Amino acid sequence: MQLKFNVTGMTCAACSARVEKVATQIPGVEKAEVNLLAGTMSVNANERTVIPQILAAIEKAGYGATVMGDTPVNRAPADNSLPEMKRRIIYSAIFLVVLMYFTMGHMIHLPMPGWYHGDENALVAVLVQLFLTLPVLYWNRAYYRKGIRSLLHRSPNMDSLIAVGSGAAFVYGVVALFRMAYAMGNNQMDVVVYYSQNLYFESAAMILTLVTLGKYLETRAKKKTGDAISRLMDLNPKTATVRRNDINIELPIEQVVVGDTVIIRAGGRIPVDGTILSGRATVDQSALTGESIPVEKSVGDSIAAGTTNLEGYLEMCADRVGEDTTLFQIIRMVEEAGGSKAPIARLADKIAGIFVPVVMTIAAITFFVWLFSEQSLEFALNMAISVLVISCPCALGLATPVAIMVGTGRAAGMGVLFRNAEALENLHKIDTVVLDKTGTLTKGQPEVTDVIPAAVTETELLMIAASLEEKSEHPFATAIINKAISLPKKKVSDFQVLPGRGVRGIIDGTEYLGGNRRLMEEIGISVPDFHQLTEKGKTPLYFASRQAYLGAIAAADVLKTDSVSAVQAMHRLNLDVIMLTGDNAATGGAIGDIAGISNIISDVLPGDKAGVISDLQKLGHRVLMVGDGINDAPALATADVSMAIGNGTDIAVESADVVLMNNSLCGVAQAVELSKATIRNIKQNLFWAFFYNSLGIPIAAGILYPGLGIALSPMIGAAAMSMSSVFVVTNALRLRWFRTKTRLKASQKAEIIKEKRTMTTVINVEGMMCPHCKARVESVCKEVPGATDAVVNLQAKTVTVTGDVDLNTVKKAILDAGYEIVE
Ligand code: ADP
Ligand code: MG
Question: The whole model's pTM is what?
């Protein structure tokens, strides 16, 4: 089997050879091959179990390694450096406190042992300090090892600054010790006293301890930035109950295959994506959609891994398992977006890249300037060390990525999935939102409201229309087909979709066309314009042969319940809202009125939608396009940011930068708000990092010393440095508690859910003769559990039951009432 790893920290051919060697030495590994430029390694091994060993071996060799292109669950356990760091901090701190007692205690008159006290014991005192410092240096030796190695590789990093800074303090102390020892023997007591008061052993130890403390706090906080992903991963149960050969068995989740019958009891989590075979349940989908109100599900409904069965018993068929489930697609998306680079990070990255050499140069200049301005060697050294340890490229480098990571994770929690960091950044600059009408603002499930025949009877018109539309997937086509469900269909040849206009086809040798006014004009048929329909937001669809106008069928689509408040929220954010539609101006205008949108661009052919977007861009607008992703792909691709409405269990909307998981437009304003909050956070972080460094470095260099007598000790520098990156990470973590101002009222929420539940069942019934039969059938159907309404159409011999009902129960009720059912 082939395993792939990302390996970091390799700089040359010697590195790649070393990594290959440590990997091949592990039992079970047949071959290991490093691609130095790509920073990857592929390994041939017999078992996956070698992964942790390979990771550990590479780590031990001094490089970083992660498994690549693997399912998140199987990924190696997170690094466990935290407990080790904590131990190091505690040990170091104990020695540091004792050291501080000896070096600083006399200033606040703490009692000192006799052998430590006085000039005659100066050498003893220094030796005590040296031996208290050495263990701290030893425990934290990693800084020296890594810092000096990267210095030698000419890519100095923060470790190099610390290594040079604290190393200089220590070396200076050792040199001073020799000078004192020499002075002792040569009776130069003044020299001995001078050095005993000018030592920095405690600086060396303190710098290391404080930096480790800072790193510890930073790592702990950084772990939290990935919380959103680990929470998502925890959603997938480890095992599933599956029925095979009529036996229920509990299997590890990896062994469930497509087609398996999976059983979920009340309270259980759904392990795979699939369709409900039997049972009904209340399902909490909040983890995937951010929508906290549970949804009812029953036979035939699709159900997604990671959602919870609150009550009820379900048997489902596994349609997608493992990495193919929606949950995993979401995890991968959040992970990729969280790890991707935002354009705003570029400058900071550039600066961070040259930061360390620049700081080293400044430290060197500081040293020489003070030395030549007749200060003591100790003072000059002290200032140079302060410069080295106060400056922090970490804060700069962390500022953007941590905020992006937390921001995208938080967004996922609200049901807003970002594909990349660039979209998260660009969204805050948007000034115009273009909304597709059908399926985005409206439910996209129009219904026929009026049938207005002209040259033929109503039934004939419906029959021709439905036959023509049968091959079209347009929502209007579906409306007409539903309306004419009980009518026989004619055979259509030469069928053709005329995008944005309608359809055409040949029935019994005659060519028929159906579609909008534009289409009728093209074939020279004049049609009425049905003002009274269009101003109510209904769309007239005209049908004609080449010779004659046959009649019109009007269909109306209704707004999604929360579209109005979603548009209001967009206006509150000062966004221009534009509705884009292929429908006619009058219908578009009427729907716009209800939705609260005054800018309407109507009669747009599907191919021209992208052109409209680029025209807006040419006028200087930054455009967000929101569509249902089906026929809007070119427009979505043209916009500065594109957003697609998903339906909660399917995120296969490839062309969009952002996917709204809960089928509500409210996510638009939420996403924009979150983008603004994230960018604000990044700017705070960057400001802090720049401000901190541009103030800290000059002060450490002693710029305030000539005027005010302020000189920083290296210890304060080290503490400030550690705190600056802790500050940045902590600030980014605040985004976890980001709350949008766009909130739905509880009643509106309830309606959305109800809407999802409303379903209709149409049954053909034989034997209904009169209004009495109609009433009887309607009443028995209404009594079926879950039914909200039942309507009989005597002509069509159908009953349409509204509500979440079990088909067999309805059929039984009708049969019991003495009527026949036709399949
Ligand atoms: P939208 O922007 O609302 O998605 P389309 O571009 O899909 O609109 O369609 C534009 C217009 O073309 C519709 O309003 C309708 O009048 C007409 N049309 C499109 N497809 C059909 C069809 N299958 N049957 C009848 N009319 C159609
Ligand atoms: Mg459309």
Answer: 0.71
